[in-house]
Amino acid sequence: MAKIQYRFNPETLTFDIVAIPLKTRFAKGLVTFLVGFAIASVFMVIYGLFFDTPKSHNLRRQNAELRVKYELLNKRFDETDRILTDLQERDNTVYRSIFELDIIPEQVREAGSASSEKYEKLSGYENSDILIGASEKLDMLTRKVYLQSKSFDQVAVLAKSKEKMMLCVPAINPVALKGRLRLMENFGGRIDPVYRRWAYHEGIDISGPQGTPIYATGDGVVDLTEYSFRGYGNQILISHGFGYHTRYAHLTKVLVVPGQRVKRGEKIGLMGSTGKSTGSHLHYEVIVRGRPVNPVNYLSRDMELDEYESIIDNAPQTKSKGTDLSKSKKRRRR
User: Fold this and answer.
1) Residues 289-303: what's their mean pLDDT?
2) What stretches of 120-212 adopt beta strand conformation (E)?
3) What is the CATH number of the domain that holds 300?
4) Which one, 51, 144, 159, 312, has least CB within 10 Å?
5) What burial class does residue 257 get, using C-beta atoms within 10 Å of its C-beta: 0-12 exposed, 13-18 middle, 19+ buried?
6) Alpha carbon distance 265, 129 (integer Å)
7) How is 50-75 classified by DSSP, letter by letter?
8) Domain shared by 181 and 233, yes or no
9) Nearest CA among 205, 220, 234, 187 for reference residue 316
């Protein structure tokens, strides 16, 4: 039912009843509501731009707290990385050096990085730089710790077998000569005594009378015995394990065979002048993980003669009567 309104009629000088339809009233009310809603929305937007709502204020506070926590976490990562770097340095210079292991280069320890795609999901946020930086540092530390644990595993294995290793590492003089060893040639570059040209000498030459006994400088297995006319002459190559090999060359006789186990101080041959040689001597090499090193560092300079003779006396006696490989075929460990 329409709402009753009155309108003055000047002709009759009376008020006539005017009825407003419901549709018109509804339209006017809707317009009034929409205008009011629009004004309220604009007001709230303006208020939100210049004033924080309780919810936005709480979110800003939480974001600030998280940023501080991530910054502290990054500092912890940096401190942990410094500690790990010191540990790696000690591993290379102390632990691995004690067991004569190759050092792990810095480029290997630092190698490997996660794909940038891994961090894409962290981009696009207000604090993306902190999130991505923390994730990258965590991944880097994880890789470093894994590599360091593998290095410690390797050192631990050698530490557990250190007694066996001490017996295998070349540690005595290969020739039992009274007085100081007579070195004809040192390790390194020199003028070749036969060809008279510069050449790298991968061992040392110890002079002595022909037939002087030659002894194994550490426990091991004979890996090779062979003869070379223009090279080492009669030679013996012993594998000591742990990456160590020793070579004894220019022998007049070889007293061991490939595959034979020998002990430190066991007689393995007799000094001679076979192969490319200018006189009776022993060419002695120490090879560590495939690389010749200076044998002088493995000679027992401070060992007393009585102690040296005791090692020789306690070593097993070679049963072989001796072999001149220049008159026989090559012998290799099978």
Assistant:
1) 81
2) 183-185, 188-191, 198-201, 204-207
3) 2.70.70.10
4) 51
5) middle
6) 65
7) HS--HHHHHHHHHHHHHHHHHHHHHH
8) yes
9) 220
Q: Does 314 lie in the same domain as 240?
A: yes
Residue 28 has pLDDT above 90, yes or no: no
* Residues 65, 37 share a domain: no
User: Between the ranges 134-143, 171-180, 228-237, 319-328, where is the mean pLDDT highest?
Assistant: 228-237
Same structural domain, 36 and 71: no
Burial per residue of 32-49, b for 16 or more beta-carbon CB atoms within 10 angstroms, e otherwise: eeeeeeeeeeeeeeeeee
What is the Cα–Cα distance from 204 to 187, expressed in whole angstroms? Answer: 5
CA-to-CA distance for 272 and 137, rounded, in angstroms?
62
Max distance between CA atoms of the chain, in angstroms, equals 159
Question: Do 119 and 16 have their domain in common?
Answer: no
My answer on whether 215 and 326 are in the same domain is yes
Domain count for the chain, please give it.
Answer: 3
Q: Within 13 Å and on the Cβ side, how many CA atoms surround 324?
A: 9
Q: Distance (Å, rounded) from C-alpha 110 to C-alpha 309?
A: 50
The Cα–Cα gap between 44 and 57 comes to: 16
Which pLDDT band, with edges at 50, 70 and 90, does 1 fall under?
A: very low
Whether residues 73 and 8 share a domain: the answer is no
Please choose, from the candidates 117, 122, 136, the residue with its C-alpha nearest in 3D space to the C-alpha of residue 73.
Answer: 136
My answer on whether 202 and 296 are in the same domain is yes
For residue 122, pLDDT over 80 is answered with no
Domain span at residue 111 reads 54-160
* The pLDDT of residue 235: 95
From the list 167, 233, 224, the residue with the least C-alpha distance to 205 is 233
pLDDT attached to residue 59: 77
199 assigned to some structural domain: yes
Asked whether the beta carbons of 287 and 247 are under 8 A apart, the reply is yes
Element (H, E) at 42: helix 22-50
